[in-house]
């Protein structure tokens, strides 16, 4: 996981030792708008604010006035990257795209920030991408053999360079041909001087939706939560394999690829997407409450109080409380103002990481049998620390309930979820995990319970991280590096 390692300046963040480390991380959010007469840069800025949860490493906006494309991007949060001055510099355009990034392919450095701007036979294009391309190495080698030079190390530039190198003279055909070449997960927005294009992989792994702005503009966004902020009206989701083209003539859709096996990432429902978003016409907050209700039915326990691990454990904890009749309470308070630190992270700081992020409420916990609800356990590095924190606050028992199945397999489609050797459920039984985290009992939601909570056929989702059934073939080199349950040991030096 990218967050396990020092940044480009060698510093570490407290995030490396906090509860969020033990959750999957999505790599980015994308936003696009075609709205002549509107301040598209400012509207894109507001949209990115709403998508900040999808990536906190860098942010960027590109705008077009019909002739040229201007880009502003930096490392950091949306609020850090953009100022009134930088937004003023981006005024005057009628098309805009934006991006928030969490790195999975390509390190967390400025050259990998998006949108990516490249010169092509069609003129300049800007590209923003959410997902992960699994045949990046092959495509990059082919493009480099044709003399194309890369400026970054991420797979998003591969998409941009593919578009720029194919079917000269017709950007729509170039995108269609690119979609036929790339394999993996991608929800992408592309901006030319006079067009906004949006397309999605044929499995529909990452979300992407279409909206109307005051009947005069069109908006594309990773999630519906960004639509509410700018007053846009949701129209529909962009279909798997579909290409949408927006210009002065209106909006046209091109079924560029026939949809394959539907495989929306189920973790969008469990954790990744914001709870006030809608996917497949379903409220994510309501689905997460039902996950808690299903969890209570599958793993009941006699307890005094149900508490969430903030913030993402709240909906499932509410549902568990509703179904079990055990009162809901706040037992952990999250400090939201802990960020980057330049203090050397010694062992003492590692031990204090969770304590600096979470504070227990003794009046809720002392003398109580506690049900602690969280959305997932990935590595198992922090759950035990939280259990210990609750016990130290006086809880007599701590029963851990997880509103997703055990994560046993790595993700290759845009979620940073570690190699298989780092996944605790790949190496231990549930009883061994319970002992490892120090809980009195441990229950994971079953795949069947998860399916019932979402209220849709299991066949519409990717469950590969639970089952190992991947909807897109994973290249052998990635399988070798990420599937092993053993630590890779350095080779012994050869004696000569």
Distinctive features:
18 helices; alpha+beta; 496 residues; disordered C terminus; 6-stranded antiparallel sheet
Written overview of the protein:
It contains 18 helices and 25 strands. The strands form seven sheets. The protein has a seven-stranded antiparallel β-sheet with strand order 4-3-5-2-11-10-12. The chain has a six-stranded antiparallel β-sheet with strand order 6-7-8-9-13-14, covered by helices on one side. Strands 18-21-22-24 form a four-stranded parallel β-sheet, with helices on both faces. It is of the alpha+beta class and 496 residues long. It starts with 24 loop residues before the first strand and ends in a 14-residue tail after the last helix.
Globally, the shape reads globular
Largest sheet: 7 strands, antiparallel
Radius of gyration: 23 Å
Q: What topology, given as strand order, has the largest sheet?
A: 4-3-5-2-11-10-12
- Ranges where pLDDT stays below 50 over 5 or more residues in a row are 1-18, 104-108, 340-344, 488-496
Question: How many DSSP E strands?
Answer: 25
Helical content (DSSP H or I, runs of 4+): 25-40%
Q: Please report the number of helical segments.
A: 18
Strand content: 15-25%
The structure class reads alpha+beta
Distance N to C terminus: 38 Å
Mean pLDDT reading = 87
